[in-house]
Amino acid sequence: MANLNYSDMELIFLGTGGGRVVACSQKRATGGFVIKEENFQIHVDPGPGALIRCIQNHIDVSKTKYLFLSHAHFEHVAGTWEIVEAMSGGGLRKGGSILMNKSCAFGARGEEIFSPILQEYWKNFLEIKVLEAGEEIDFPEFSIKTCRAIHEDPYAVGAIFKFKSITIGYTGDTMFSKEIAESYRGCDLLILNVLRPNNFKLKMHMCTIEAIEFLKYSEVKNAILQHFGMKMLRVGPEREALFIKQATGKNVIAATDNLRVDLRKFIMQEGLGKYYEK
Q: Chain centroid to CA 34: how far?
């Protein structure tokens, strides 16, 4: 793996909404998030409005080199087409990669029927990587390890992005599983999709109580919550993050739309605890 200049690395949340109701109402934006470095960036789960959220956050989409799609639900992939066009200059510029699960590439039948989103002409200018859980792939700037997820999409995955000086985990949408939680051990920071508050469980997703168990088994010290549904927004994600922090003794915050985390500062100050001290 090549050395990574992480001095200007940022984690930018282009949206923190989750579920169909929030995505359609845009009570919270649904643009996914970007891991941004000086010379490249990774866009993760670009949902509805991804391109306009990039523009609003002064993100140069032409520098997006990698797209990662965890599964085929629309609030995770609806912005893919526009990001692909923007990052490739309308298909005239080659060199990017799109990393997608099997359902995004080929469609699937599980709890729901999923149609593929992969467009044949993308292959003319993008490298296409179809991911299954448990794979590890090296790129010049980072490596990615995919993790199992339990969701309506039978091929849904989470991911661990390993850079030179920081390892960032992303659960994607999944229900709680001790085995899945343990697969994120060793991450410096975990981005956790928590759809519902308290003990309001929903099949194939996580609520606050399940997130507490997930963090305990993951042994990750720093977590950022996102992907909030309407019930979570009514209660308040910040309140739930504080509850999780108190229950686990870990550094936990709730992301807000347009939140920018300076990853150099995070690395140098050893996590969210010191990063967010006033």
A: 8
